[in-house]
Automatic annotation (TrEMBL), chain B:
<dbReference type="GO" id="GO:0005886">
    <property type="term" value="C:plasma membrane"/>
</dbReference>
<keyword id="KW-0812">Transmembrane</keyword>
<comment type="similarity">
    <text>Belongs to the binding-protein-dependent transport system permease family.</text>
</comment>
<dbReference type="InterPro" id="IPR035906">
    <property type="entry name" value="MetI-like_sf"/>
</dbReference>
<keyword id="KW-0813">Transport</keyword>
<keyword id="KW-1133">Transmembrane helix</keyword>
<feature type="transmembrane region" description="Helical">
    <location>
        <begin position="188"/>
        <end position="210"/>
    </location>
</feature>
<feature type="transmembrane region" description="Helical">
    <location>
        <begin position="109"/>
        <end position="130"/>
    </location>
</feature>
<dbReference type="InterPro" id="IPR000515">
    <property type="entry name" value="MetI-like"/>
</dbReference>
<dbReference type="GO" id="GO:0055085">
    <property type="term" value="P:transmembrane transport"/>
</dbReference>
<feature type="domain" description="ABC transmembrane type-1">
    <location>
        <begin position="66"/>
        <end position="254"/>
    </location>
</feature>
<feature type="transmembrane region" description="Helical">
    <location>
        <begin position="136"/>
        <end position="158"/>
    </location>
</feature>
<protein>
    <submittedName>
        <fullName>ABC transporter permease</fullName>
    </submittedName>
</protein>
<feature type="transmembrane region" description="Helical">
    <location>
        <begin position="66"/>
        <end position="97"/>
    </location>
</feature>
<feature type="transmembrane region" description="Helical">
    <location>
        <begin position="230"/>
        <end position="253"/>
    </location>
</feature>
<keyword id="KW-1003">Cell membrane</keyword>
<keyword id="KW-0472">Membrane</keyword>
Length: 273, 295
């Protein structure tokens, strides 16, 4: 049931397989690998998967399993060593406008108000219009910070700062959202609340989401699919389908069915989890 | 309206805090006066406060001798500082932008730093003469280094995550420099400017001590040669005054520019931006409430 070879079988097939996979998938990878410069550290090996439009994928695994590397490859922040990677059918070779990324730290600019921070992505592309400003205000309303749109980041709590960062991510207009442990630095209560909000928001904008975490329950609770990753070399050990209906409430996490999925993921990760 | 009220509160608060200091000073002065008048301290070397006050009265009020000198030293300091700062910041920006440039400039910056700047005084006077030129030059030379080092450190200390965020947004190097690195460097740039300004004053005064026709340094030299200690100290106080004036001017600028590091300024700027936004793009809600509620 949890054979680690589930998806890597077709890793070495020819280009046509990559093309076939890319047609309906938003993100498609075949045998995607990343070895860092000195050639000894294999950060990611032979990752193959297709991500359907609008789906929510969690990447879970211990440190060094390549989850951040995979995210940075998709973001175009680093170059792959071998294999194929396409987003919307086009190879990834640089950061692009249809892919947006959010980090564990909010990385807001301290000298800009919340709304000025949200407008940054647009400002980098072109000069601002009245429509952009309205949209930014609307996004801040969506993340529940409309009343704080003129506050500076240092006047906001950690959770609020991440909400601003989320609004900034949505302002990019990207439909592939890459979230690298976005709420990892927050306390558990805030994190849980933000997770529920995140699910609502990405469903509302219809974005395809990749969410990195090392919390197994969180990974399952949020996702349609969980990529379970193992280290040395970093690879996708298995892709677990999450069967639960949406919308989901936090109480789902106490159900026996949920815990079965948790146990399945734990099993794949092995004894160190 | 509320701003005005809170600023008058602030003034009252400040006055209340200053009061004990003032009282302590006033209590110490009679002790000093007594120590001199009883001969415990020689009055030729240390003048009693009454003599200093008399000299202040004469220099600053009766004949106003101090003012032309005061203005000259102030001008030399500000001009020297401006030149030093302009060169330092230009070189820091170039060094931050180009690794090669930095490699070629930093040895000279280090040499300039380890050489006592004050020791250049005779050379600078030989080059620029007895007038204001040599004072401006020395002030510029010795204020250069702290500003250069701080600005360069500020421009080079980049938050890796923020930089990656800019890259993921497809920002050009130019955009990342102007929108991220420059503003992020400002707190350190201002730290450097504050040190540089104080240093510039030292440069101007030392050059005046060495060889000059006017300036508070000249005046002080003259008084101490005459063993007129009261006037010497009264002149010294004018240097303190120049220092304070420049320091607070810089502090004021720092407060305005690096507002996000100052809690009080932050909420003021936040409200101002909300008002500006409402005026330019129309705010359907009153912007006054939010900055207040964010506290």
């Amino acid at each position: 049931m949890n054979m680690p070879t589930q998806n890597s079988g077709q890793a070495d097939t020819a280009d046509q397989a990559a093309d076939a996979g890319a047609k309906d998938a938003v993100v498609a990878a075949r045998g995607l690998s990343k070895t860092f410069a000195d050639g000894t550290v294999v950060a990611l090996e032979g990752a193959s998967f297709d991500i359907a439009p609008g789906s929510f994928v969690s990447l879970v695994g211990p440190s060094g399993c390549g989850k951040s590397t995979l995210l940075r490859l998709i973001a175009g922040l680093i170059d792959k060593s071998s294999g194929h990677l396409k987003v919307h059918g086009k190879p990834v070779d640089a950061p692009r406008t249809d892919v947006g990324m959010m980090f564990q730290r909010a990385t807001l600019l301290e000298w800009r108000t919340a709304i000025e921070n949200v407008l940054l992505p647009t400002e980098i592309k072109r000069s601002l219009t009245k429509e952009d400003r309205r949209n930014a205000a609307e996004l801040l309303r969506m993340v529940g910070l409309h009343d704080f749109r003129f506050s500076f980041p240092t006047q906001l709590s950690g959770g609020m700062q991440q909400r601003v960062a989320l609004a900034r991510l949505l302002q990019t207009g990207a439909d592939v959202l890459l979230l690298d442990e976005p709420f990892g630095a927050l306390d558990e209560f805030t994190r849980e609340r933000l997770n529920v909000e995140l699910m609502r928001i990405v469903a509302e904008v219809g974005a395809t989401t990749l969410f990195v975490t090392h919390n197994i329950a969180e990974a399952i609770f949020l996702a349609d699919q969980v990529f379970v990753m193992t280290p040395r070399p970093g690879r996708i050990a298995s892709i677990v389908e999450v069967p639960f209906e949406r919308p989901r409430s936090p109480s789902l996490q106490t159900s026996p069915e949920f815990n079965e999925v948790v146990a399945e993921v734990r099993d794949i990760l092995g004894e160190d989890h | 309206m509320s701003d005005r009220r809170s600023s008058s509160y602030a003034l009252a608060y400040w006055a209340l805090r200053a009061l004990p200091h003032l009282l302590l000073l006033l209590a110490l002065l009679p002790v000093w006066e007594l120590a001199v008048s009883t001969g415990f301290i020689t009055s030729i070397l240390v003048p009693p406060p009454s003599e200093i006050i008399a000299s202040i009265w004469e220099l600053y009020v009766l004949d106003g001798t101090i003012y032309p000198h005061f203005l000259i030293t102030l001008t030399e300091t500000v001009a020297g500082f401006a030149i030093g700062a302009a060169v330092a910041i230009t070189l820091a920006v170039c060094s931050a932008l180009s690794e090669t440039f930095k490699r070629y400039v930093s040895p000279y910056a280090i040499v300039l730093n380890v050489t006592p700047g004050i020791a250049l005084t005779p050379v600078v006077i030989a080059w620029f003469g007895y007038g204001m030129g040599s004072k401006v030059a020395l002030a510029a030379i010795i204020s250069f280094f702290p500003i250069f080092v701080n600005a360069l450190t500020g421009l080079l200390q980049v938050d890796r995550d923020s930089e990656e965020m800019f890259r993921s947004l497809g920002a050009s190097d130019r955009q990342a420099f102007l929108k991220l690195r420059v503003p992020a460097s400002l707190p350190l740039v201002f730290a450097g400017l504050k040190i540089g300004l104080t240093t510039a004053l030292i440069g101007a005064v030392v050059a005046e001590f060495a060889q000059a026709t006017a300036g508070v340094g000249v005046l002080m030299n003259r008084f101490s040669f005459q063993l007129d200690m009261g006037s010497s100290i009264a002149t010294l106080l004018s240097m303190t005054l120049i220092g304070l004036l420049l320091f607070y001017a810089m502090e004021f600028l720092d407060d305005r520019v690096v507002f996000w590091r100052r809690e009080g300024r932050r909420s003021v700027v936040s409200r101002a931006r909300a008002r500006r936004w409402a005026a330019k793009f129309g705010g359907h809600e009153s912007p006054e409430t939010e900055a207040a509620s964010s506290k």
